[in-house]
Amino acid sequence: MDTPNPRIRTQVRDTLDSTSLEARRDVESGQLDGQARLFIARTQTAGVGRFGKAWASPMGGLWCTLAWPINQASRRTAMEGLGLRIGVAVGQHVEHLLATHGHSERVELKWPNDVLVNGKKVAGCLIEVIEKNGRAYALVGVGVNLNFSVDALPVELRSSATTIVDIVEGESPIDRAAQDLCERLRDALMTEGLDSATLAEARQRLHGVGKPARVVMPDGAEKTGALQGLDDRGCLVLQTDAGQFTAPIGAALHN
């Protein structure tokens, strides 16, 4: 496969336990030596999503992790708003995939970075930061349900998931999709802080506004209310019985 970007090498395997685990192994062994790399697997045997949940990865999906070196001098601003920047980038990628088949379904963002079409999950992201020998890397894992039917997923996931091929009734070239996604992830990672354009798009795409939501804090405490939107830092805002509540960074949304 050609490299999706001249500065980003690509490593493709037919089968991996997890592209994120493979990226971690290469970072920890020193093989990347400060360079970015895109890891792609045709299928994963032990893919992991948010909260440590298993991620089903049948053949035909786009399963990848971009290992990206973080500039230590600007680490704080580089990480600020990264979850939303990645979520918006993946949402734009899904919108692009649909448009290439003449479709224009609304693409939504379930905070911070699950992507939905017609209210069903079509893509998800997992972001980790690891350090080795004083050098930090962001591992941005993305899974896109691309060229397989939802029937290939475990039964318990089928009602809440969808796939690009089921929506558009046609396949998308995986190599071309990987190139587009890589470029969008690169641009999101090169942006520092939560810029106004990304925040505006995240607000426009936000799923579940006005509906009941439950937010779990980093310490395990919970808040319930109606989802109102995002504040200027990209944090969730709920309307609760006690008034408006802004969730802290690191909180998790369940709605």
Percentage beta strand: 25-35%
Low-confidence stretches: 1-6
* SSE order, one letter for each helix or strand: EHEEHHEEEEHHHEEEEE
Residue share in helix: 25-40%
Instruction: Give, in spatial order, the strands making up the sheet with the most strands.
Output: 1-2-3-7-6-5-4
Mean pLDDT: 90
Number of self-contained structural domains: 2
CATH level 1 class label of the largest domain:
Alpha Beta
CATH topology annotation of the largest domain: BirA Bifunctional Protein, domain 2
Full CATH superfamily name of the largest domain: Bira Bifunctional Protein, Domain 2
Describe the structure.
With 255 residues, the protein is of the alpha+beta class. It folds into 2 domains: 9-203, 2-Layer Sandwich (BirA Bifunctional Protein, domain 2), CATH 3.30.930; 208-254, SH3 type barrels (Roll). Helix content is 26%, strand content 32%. It contains 6 helices and 12 strands. The protein has helices at residues 19-28, 75-79, 82-100, 164-168, 174-190, 196-205, and strands at residues 9-16, 37-44, 62-70, 107-110, 114-117, 120-132, 135-144, 212-216, 222-230, 236-240, 243-246, 252-254. The chain has a 7-stranded mixed beta sheet, sandwiched between helices. Strands 11-10-9-8-12 form a 5-stranded antiparallel beta sheet. It starts with 8 loop residues before the first strand and ends with a strand. Mean pLDDT is 90; it is low at 1-6.
